[in-house]
Amino acid sequence: MADLTIRKLLIDLDEAFDARWNGGDAFTSAFMNALSMSFPVGEQFFIDSLRRGIKELPPELQDEFNQDVKGFIGQEATHRRIHELFNRHVLNHGMVNHWELRVSKRVEHINQKKAIHAVAITAAYEHYTSVFASWLLKHPEFLAQAPERLQTLWLWHASEETEHRCVSFDIYRAMGGNEVWRKRWMITVTVFFLSDIFRQTINNLWHDGSLFKLKTWRSAWRHLFTKEGLFTSSFSDWKSYFRRDFHPSAHDDRLSIQWLQTHPSFYQAVGQNH
Q1: CB burial readout 39-63, b (16+ within 10 A) else e
Q2: pLDDT tens across 23-72, in order?
């Protein structure tokens, strides 16, 4: 595992931004807002899951993974705080965060299960975030019309998600997690993730007043389902999770490394785990 640097993002999120902040496009703004709405409670769940998981490893494996988990937690905690700031502006535009309420109820249920299940769920969600991060870094035009500070937020987040993509998966394996539950939880996560993002995006568009406009759904089709769309072009990466020899490290991280190396003025390193 590569060293994980904990970074403070140097952007101003005190200033409000437009409801359709992504170049005036209602759909992509609503879609990204929906994703952001899930992050504070989701990132906290990931943090808590790995804290539970590493405690169940034998001492020698705890020592082996301790720094990776610290780096993972530091990055995810930073993401959570940044998206809390982002979400305040989204909610000020009249949006309602239904996704967070649903996830909070599921977390209560999951926390009653053994820690290995929480880690398996985390690994599945981390695969989703890694796949989406890879797509976003490959398609900078998606955010090209957004304010620079918001472009920076999303591309920094995408880069760090790629950077720590292996940690939860490796912890699951170290805990003795089997293939049946790994794949089963990915199927479950897929159902919840796709239904949740669809419902929250629809709700955001309803509040925005653009739900029934043809332009909105043309944008949805173009960005999600055309040849280079998120869902279409990422399907093979998602499917790779079900291969027996799958490991997150197989996913190309060159764009993540490149973004972090070429934008050092946008963040300050506050810690690094070796």
Answers
A1: bbbbbbbbbbbbebbbebbeeeeee
A2: 999 999 999 999 999 999 999 999 999 999 999 999 999 999 999 999 99
- Residue 35: both structure tokens together: 């994703």
Q: Which residue has the tokens 């796709």?
A: 194
Contact 237/251 with Cβ under 8 angstroms? yes
Contact (CB, 8 A) for 30 and 217? no
Strand 4-9 and strand 267-273: pairing?
antiparallel
Dihedrals phi, psi of 38, to nearest 5 degrees: -85, -15
For 243-258, b where at least 16 C-beta lie within 10 A, e where not — what string? Answer: eeebebeebebebbee
CA 262, chain centre distance (Å): 22
pLDDT tens, 162-191? Answer: 999 999 999 999 999 999 999 999 999 999
Whole-angstrom distance, CA of residue 265 vs CA of residue 9: 9
pTM over 0.85: yes
Query: What pLDDT shows up at residue 3?
Result: 81
Q: How far apart are CA 45 and CA 32, in angstroms?
A: 20
Indicate the helix (H) or strand (E) that contains 253.
none
First to last CA, the chain: 9
Half-sphere exposure (Cβ direction) of 111: Cα atoms closer than 13 Å: 14
DSSP state of 11: -
* Residue 176: both structure tokens together: 């003795």
Closest CA to 20 of 160, 126, 150: 150
Residues 6 or more apart whose CB falls under 8 angstroms from that of 74 comprise 4, 6, 271, 273
Closest CA to 219 of 208, 230, 209: 230
The amino acid occupying position 99 is W
| DSSP helix/strand/coil, 114 | coil
Q: What is the chain's length? A: 274
